[in-house]
Amino acid sequence: MQRSFSMDFKFRSQDIMRGPEWANVRALYKAAGYSDSELKKPIIGIVNAFNEICPGHNILKEMAERVKEGVFAAGGTPVEFGTIACCDGMAMAHDGMKYVLPSRETIANDVECMVQAHRLDGLVLLGSCDKIEPGLILGALRVNLPTVFVNGGPALPGRMKEGNPYGGEYIDHSIIQQSEGALKSGKITQKQFDWLENNAVPTIGSCAMLGTANTMACLAEALGLSLPGCAAIPAVYSARMRISFESGLAVMNLVRKNIRARDIVNLKSIENAVRVNSAIGGSTNAVLHMLAIAYEAHVKFDINDFGRVAQEVPHLVAMIPAGSYVLLDFYEAGGVHALMNEIRSKLSLDNITCTGETLEKNLEIYGENRNNDVIRPLNNPVHTVSGIGILHGNLAPEGAVTKPSAIPAAAHNFTGKAVIFESEQDALEGIRALKIKAGDVVVIRNEGPRGGPGMPEQYKAMKLLVGMKLGDKVCLITDGRFSGSNNGCFVGHICPEAYDDGPIKYLRNGDVIHVDVDNGIIEAEVDFEARRKEGAEDHTRSVEGYLYHYRHSVASASLGAVIKTRD
Predict the structure, then answer these.
(1) From CA 234, how far away is CA 205, in angstroms rounded?
(2) Rg, C-alpha atoms of the chain
(3) Helix, strand, coil: what percent of the chain each, to 5?
(4) Which of 132, 163, 169, 250 is deepest in the core (most CB within 10 A)?
(5) What residues contact 527, with CB distance under 8 A and at least 6 apart?
């Protein structure tokens, strides 16, 4: 039964909807077919990142219709608008990747512009994939309205029982990039490679493994912005349509209770999300996004806070690339809330969520762990270390990021000599030409937020090395970033970046570099002050268009690569 609002109920759309002075606004809505009765209800923005390019977003058109039905059923009027959505997988390893992280800020700006221009009363965010999800959340936090986030859901995995490099039964999109290295080095045939291309991704949805897309969906649920169970539902399951409808109902409940985005996203919920990221072995990109979310939530939380909180929880869920499970397994085991129940002793439980109830209440209802092999208890972790590690040292005085859960144990303490590449493309050419050998530290620089610009992922370089069976014999370090699907020995987000005169700019071929993952250290046997006096060649690349503006506005990766939005 539809619930109505009394005429004295205050919601902001009515500021431009009531009285003769706002007849022009009502007339424009009526031109689009809205009735007087609809215009007296809360106007709920349905922010839809649907497009026909990204497989992770194909499902969003159908989901939006179910969300709108939920909003209508609960007494609101939904209005849908779109935003951009770039696919990391399609943008990988070419200049297009320079635009993907910057797109996060564009999406946030889109949300802010549309909401403020039209005085909307609440938001349901529909997105999938790496930068879209945090971009939508950043925008919602800026405008601080009642908000529910709904991700598009992971794809179903492919099956490969024999010869699966991850072990287990399932494979996903990331295996293709890894297999290119295997093909180049003669470890698999062209026929085997073609089979992987045609069978690794059998359905629409975000990548089936725990990349950044699924990481951020899980963290949105951990923050309390998504309904319990939402993150891991496969894109093609009917439950995804049901939770879309329920999210429409939920946002109206938040409007009635005046529970806003920044009531939900606060220091306690951010720390909870970081703990969840550690437990699932989430993407290194989560560091960038959680710092940005903290900034837009007006919460003081920096990279060192992230590192400190991350160490409180060990790695409990062995999903690809840090194990053999996929999101389907995680969903069937109970998903994010089942995991949170396992680590509830480490969590703040009194946070309000988009259900209108506290996290503690939600865990009582939705916290059943249905598979202790997939979601391990605290006393039986996959790894005793956190899924994410923050490193410091003379090579990264402002910090660097790695993923201990995805690094082979033998490579947690790595010493080798630097092989320098001034760009991602140079590195890919060098790796494909088989110029890298065991014991090397591959250095890719000039790929930070400002230097890239756009901090492109160095995903493919690491995947090629893994495919060549060098994942535990070579370390790759960069001022760029990595994908959530990366494995092997890697360190990204080295800050300051080369563009900002960071120490990485002054490394030379043959320099000895130490990476100690367990103790959080990255050091080079170099006198960087002496090197600065000697100088180094400038490899800054000229840019234009949006990337020009981005380069001159974006902050360091150690600050979340945010663009400042307030004094």
Answers:
(1) 7
(2) 23
(3) 40, 15, 45
(4) 132
(5) none
Which letter, b or e, does each residue of 475-512 get, where b requires 16 or more Cβ atoms within 10 Å of its Cβ?
bbbbbbbbbbbbbbbbbbbbbbbbbbebbbbbbeeebe
CA 277 distance to own-chain centroid: 10
Instruction: Indicate the SS3 state at residue 93.
Output: coil
pTM of structure: 0.94
Cα 478 to Cα 491: distance, rounded to the nearest angstrom: 6
In this structure, are residues 66 and 33 in contact, taking their beta carbons and an 8 Å threshold?
no
Let me know the angle formed at the C-alpha of 379 by 377 and 385, rounded to the nearest 5 degrees: 95
167 — pLDDT class (breaks 50, 70, 90): low
Give φ, ψ of 246 to 5 degrees.
Answer: -65, -30
Residue 257's φ and ψ, nearest 5 degrees, are -90, -5
**Domain positions in the chain:** 12-156+205-366, 158-199, 389-559
pLDDT tens string 485-511? 788 899 999 999 999 999 999 999 999
Half-sphere exposure of 295 (CA within 13 A, CB side): 26
Of 560, 278, 270, the closest CA to residue 403 belongs to 278
Q: State the CATH architecture for 389-559.
A: 3-Layer(bba) Sandwich (3.50)
Cβ within 8 Å of residue 499, ≥6 positions away:
446, 448, 450, 451, 479, 540
269 has catalytic annotation: no
Residues 191, 194, 200, 203, CA torsion sign:
negative
Options 247, 324, 386, 483, the catalytic residue: 483
Evaluate the CA torsion angle 123, 128, 134, 139 in order and state its sign.
negative
Residue 492's H or E segment, with its range, is strand 489-495
> What gap in Å lies between CA 522 and CA 513, rounded to an integer?
7
Report phi then psi at 548, rounded to 5. -65, -50
**Residue 460 Rama label (left phi>0; alpha psi -120 to 50; beta):** alpha
Residue with tokens 């919602």: 140
Distances (CA, A) of 48 to 101, 123, 475, 548: 19, 11, 40, 27
Residues 6+ apart with CB under 8 A from 68: 46, 78, 80, 248
The residue assigned the tokens 């990039």 is 177
Can you tell me the distance from the alpha carbon of 414 to that of 519, in angstroms, rounded to the nearest whole number?
12
